[in-house]
């Protein structure tokens, strides 16, 4: 799941860094071969660093919910199934927690999705960078069938739905 999310956020104006990794588990189990078993507590995640003068947290949330992933899928994203693919926002400040929960409440009240939003909003205990071969995977393997089918549509949606935020990488 993190390949497409990383590719989307790397193309958002004001995002200065997007790194694929793991969050929700311990440092000792932050390895793909362990995380992929779904027993470590980790979720495949992307650490996003941004310039708040160029893009707001609210705009990042909108991108996350509208194009980067499906917030109504519990323990899965597209063809990927397991707790490591759960929808989660790992916050680092009280303002991030409040903003994320308020946005989820707004989306729920407006019935933006046909199914309930299952995105967890949880404190970040630690983020662990994924192995090098996972970094920039979309850009290094743009013609791989998984990328073409699952991740190119996300990048295309960003370009179409958020033209003012989209930057070519």
Short overview:
36% of the residues lie in helices and 19% in strands. It has 6 helices and 7 strands; from the N terminus they run αβαβαβββαββαα.
Written overview of the protein:
The chain is of the alpha+beta class. 36% of the residues lie in helices and 19% in strands. It has a single domain, classed as Peptide Methionine Sulfoxide Reductase, Chain A (2-Layer Sandwich), CATH 3.30.1060.10. The chain has helices spanning 2-9, 32-35, 57-68, 94-109, 137-140, 145-161, and strands spanning 15-23, 43-50, 76-77, 80-81, 88-91, 120-123, 127-129. Strand 3 (76-77) and strand 4 form a beta hairpin. Helix 3 packs across helix 4. It is globular.
The average pLDDT is 97
For the record, give the distance between the C-alpha atoms at the N and C termini, rounded to a whole number.
20 Å
Order of helices and strands: HEHEHEEEHEEHH
User: What is the level-2 CATH architecture name?
Assistant: 2-Layer Sandwich
Top keywords for this entry?
single chain; alpha+beta; Peptide Methionine Sulfoxide Reductase, Chain A; three-stranded antiparallel β-sheet; globular
List the helices and strands and how they pair.
Layout: H1 2-9, E1 15-23, H2 32-35, E2 43-50, H3 57-68, E3 76-77, E4 80-81, E5 88-91, H4 94-109, E6 120-123, E7 127-129, H5 137-140, H6 145-161
Parallel strand pairs: 5-6
Antiparallel strand pairs: 1-2, 1-7, 3-4
